[in-house]
Amino acid sequence: MIVKAKAIRLSILISTIVIGLIVVIQAFWLRRVYLYEEVEFDRKVVGAIKGLYDDINLLEDSTKYLNEVITKPEPHIYIAMIGKWEPEDTISYFLHHELEDFGVFTDCRLTLYDVHRGIFFEKDIPSATGRKTVLQAVPLQLTKLSRNSIILYFPHRERYILSNMIFWIVTSLILLGVIVWLGLSLFYLNRQKSLNELQRDFVNNFSHEFKTPLAVISLAVESLKKNSTAEKKEKIIKYADMIGGQSKYLQGQIDRLLRHSFSEKTELQLIRENVNIHELIREATTNLQPLIEQKNAEIHFEFNAEEANVNADKNYMLIVLINLIENALKYSNDPKVVISTVNKNHNLEISVKDNGIGIEKRFFHDIFKKFFRVPKGDIHSSKGFGIGLSFVKKIIDSHHGTIKVESVPGIGSNFIISLNQSQF
Question: How far, in Å, CA of 104 to CA of 108, rounded?
Fold first, then answer.
């Protein structure tokens, strides 16, 4: 099954959105875990202080609630009110044991503060699982309190909480790594598919460029074989010149193919010059003269454009005109083709109108897709690979122009090209 590039791009867009959502959810979840660990840390520290109150009588009124005697001015600082003092070493000893009993395994600096003496005792209580380090002093703004207090300072609080989250952090990083790897894989696969499509388009485009002049040469050769043509020297010269011109064109395209065979650009390589579209239309009809004679077709020119010059690639625009006129001839039983031009809003509009079998409106968008052929009537049974109109659109798009179709089944079709003329 061939997966279209549009479907792949849509899948990548959806995957990117999903990956983004997963990353956001992971970040949200990690934040929730961090907040939970913060609450747990607070609970353990408060529990240790309560245990200290139970171990030694530090409160004059034991009926007070913990939120009345314990405050937390900053995330890593806890202040516990003291009613009466006990020996400093006793407080330090029991506090150390309470912190370990409640599983607070991070460094703590114990500071005792008296409203009359100020700070009179400081001691570092190292974690049982860490190495001994000299801790920072309590911030100065907390050294002037209105009551006797025990100050517990945990300078490594954030690091400790993160260490408790190591499992969640590692699994999140692994998941993020897998997601990034999948995203890069999708990007790589899409790039490979794009390169494959580019290569296929490259072959299709140049195959069609070779097909058109070869078709003209073939028609000219068939005309030369006819007795009526062989007896007229001027026709022989005319068709010989036609064959020579198309052969020269083919050689030029082969040179272009060799020159750009390694190009990865999605647009065609244009060689722009000042092109007179009226002259190019007459050249296209001259190239198709054998088919015009074979179909007994009528070609009418309505050149209403006062300015017919555009900045374009002459060879590519000739392919566009030959394709549209050839289709108008092939898909009409009694061809009557009107080719007209008009200037409109700094654009040159070129119209190729026929009286052929027409195209249903539901196929208007599809006819410019590669390999699409209208599943009806002679179009379905005609030769070719359905890349003519897609290549025509590619050429017009490369010129930053537009092409559209107006058609009524059984009445005919009208292909309208618009090219910018603002530089003239």
Answer: 9
